[in-house]
C-alpha cells in the first residue's frame, strides 16, 4: 500500500463517524427464504439469526446458522480501537482470551494437535495457511476467522464486548511505547533469547504449540530500532517490525499470538475503509486460490471458505462453517456479518 493512502486512512480514522455500507449490494447475494431477491428493497424481510454457535454436541455446532442476506443487519455491533476501551473493558477482553485458552478444544482431544478452543483457531489457521495467504481468500477468510473468534469469546467465556482492533499506525514511531504492548495488556517484545520469550503482560505464562514440536513460551522479536514516521510506513518497514522473528512473524504460527486477532481486525477495518472510499469496487473479488499457483485466476464469489481437510486428526470436526465468499464481502451485510468499525 502506498504511504500516502495509509496517511489518508490514519487521518480518516481520527475523525470518521460510524459508516454503514452505502454502495451497491453484491449481485450474487443470497435470496431470502421466501424467495425474495436480495438487496435494499428487501431489507426487513429476513430475521436476525441466532448467530452464536453452541457446543452441546462437543463440537462447533452451526445448526443456528442462516444464510447472509444483504441488508438484514439492522443493529450492527461496533468494534473499537484498543485504546478507546475503558480499563475495565480492556481487562474483560484479556480475561476472555485467557479463558478461551483454558477452554478444552472442541476439535480434538489430542493435546498434541490443539489443547483449547483458542488453539482450535490457531490450529485451523496453521493447517490451511497456504490457501489463505497470498491468495484471493486472504481478506474474507481472516474476516470470518476473527468473527468466529469474537463469537467464541462471547459464547464460551461470557464476554460482553466486541473484538477490538489495534491501530498500529498510532504506534509506528515508538512501538515499545504502545499501550497494546504494555505490562497490563498483551506484553511487549521477547527477551531476545532462543526462543525469544514474552515475559510480561497477560500472556507471559501461556504456552503455544503451532509450528513448534512441543509447547513453548509465546515468542516475539520486534525490530524497534528505528522510529518510524507514518509516511515511512511502507511494507518493508512493517515486515521489519513484525517479521523479524517470533510466532507472529511466521504465518503458520501467527495465530499463537493473541495480537493476531486484534491485528487482523485492523486489516479488516482497512478493507472496510477501502470499500467505503471505492464503492464501485467494493464487491471486487478475483485472484488465485492457492499460493503455490500465484498466476491462477480461478477465485469466484461463490467459492466456499477454505476449511480443514477431511480426515486428519480432528476426525472431521471443523471450525469454519460452509460460508461462501460473497457472504463475507460486507461486514454489515447481514446474518453473522453485522458489525462496523468506529
Ligand atoms: Cu493468516
Automatic annotation (TrEMBL):
Swiss-Prot/TrEMBL keywords: Copper, Metal-binding, Signal
Keyword Membrane found: no
Organism classification: Eukaryota, Fungi, Fungi incertae sedis, Chytridiomycota, Chytridiomycota incertae sedis
Xref: Pfam families: Tyrosinase
Protein name in UniProt: Tyrosinase copper-binding domain-containing protein
Coiled-coil annotated residue ranges, if any: none
Statement: the UniProt record of this protein carries the keyword Metal-binding: yes
InterPro entries named among the record's database cross-references: Di-copper_centre_dom_sf, Tyrosinase/Hemocyanin, Tyrosinase_Cu-bd
Signal peptide: 1-15
Residues annotated as domain Tyrosinase copper-binding: 257-268
Stored SUPFAM superfamilies: Di-copper centre-containing domain (SSF48056)
Species this protein is from: Chytriomyces confervae
